[in-house]
Sequence to fold (504 residues):
Amino acid sequence: MKLELGKININQVVIGTESKIVDGTLHICDQDIISIVLEDDRIASCHVEIANPGDKTRITPVKDVIEPRCKVDSKGGIFPGVINKMDTVGSGRTHALKGCGIMTVGKIVGFQEGIVDMSGPGAEKTPFSKIINICLVVEPKEGLEPHSYEQAVRFAGLRVADYVGKLGHDVEPDEVMTYETKPLLEQIAEYPELPKVGYVYMLQTQGLLHDTYVYGADAKHIIPTILYPTEIMDGAILSGNCVSACDKNTTYHHLNNPVIEELYAKHGKEINFMGVIITNETVYLADKERSSDWTSKLAEYLGLDGVIITQEGFGNPDTDLIMNCKKIEQKDIKTVIVTDEYAGRDGASQSLADADKLADACVTGGNANEVIELPAMDKLIGQLDYVDVIAGGFDGSLREDGTIEVEIQAITGATNELGFNHMSAKGN
Amino acid sequence: MVKEIEKTGIPVVHICTVVPISLTVGANRIVPAVAIPHPLGNPSLSFEDEKKLREHIVEKALEALTTEVDSQTVFE
Fold:
């Protein structure tokens, strides 16, 4: 499967009466976008606001971020099985609007949404302070149940991203990348001398609004399976998660998965990148056992020499992570795990809820319990009244002058376990 | 908490869903629970069947509590 990904750099977003892209400026008609959001009769109102890097703006509660993309000259569309008809994606050509995102904002499960600051110390912790955010502030109709509100906002964000992405259909990209993974036997034969490396992609699927969707299927009900990596770049996987903001994978993260990006960069040079095994993180022990049995079985079946495993979320998924690692290692396949830590505010506590001596190669996205002070901002997109109860917040988090003292757990993407960020440490 | 109470000499049964974590943290008597969001029940069952399930877990825990163990034991 071969995908050409055309990147169109967006340097400016302007709200006006027309929707188009001209010389790197994305013009959007907010009324058109509001109409797309209000197609869902569960939504009472929506307004559109732009947040630029460097603005003294705080956005919260942030639910999801989506990079606008579109399929070019194709019958299918992005996010198949959800907002476009079911079709296998990941081949042909896709255009992506780089440097901007559709950010859905709404108090669905207030304590499990995130904060994004566009400047100041908080901005350094989130990748979304570096892109132009087209914020959809979505209010539900009175009495709407949280799960239904979540679905309405999720679909609204995807529909708007699809609409905005299509504005790039006929635009000449600034850069075109080509990614290719061949059918198994051909791929093995292409680089027989290189180690065969796969990627085990763990998806948050604990239910109760902690859910991820694969081609529209609720991933808590899947048995681990294999995807071509390029399918993920076309929206085969998307987030329906309302969970601690720092280490959930937004749809933007899925579309731009840095593990896949880096494995492709080394493909044919240092490694033979064989593909992606997706798996879930469930709430029954038997399901955890079954899923980790299958990831290890598939890793063996693909003939892998090495595997990178990424986690999403924390707590009991630490056990899924360790089970995957242990069972794959027991098949004599080397593993590296990518996770984050809840090591207490001083960093002195045990980082993960589970451990095993076979998990001897670990990359961390940082300590989510680290405390940060976020100074007051000039502008607020969304609302602040839930900040004392946000995951990572505490009684008194929100001060009268608008300063917020929270754990970085509350910041969207702060300790992302795909390694999306640049946080690092250096020994003496 | 399991370990701190046991230090005083009182035996403890840890009823939990994720048995591997209980083993990692060092509980001695472990009884598997139903699921993380509902460890001691199952909302998909009828009232009568759920009551039976709950009784079974508690009885299993009491049995574990009165059983001598010389290493970490999971009471399936």
About this structure: Chain B has one domain: 2-74. Strands of chain B lie at 13-16, 29-32, 73-74.
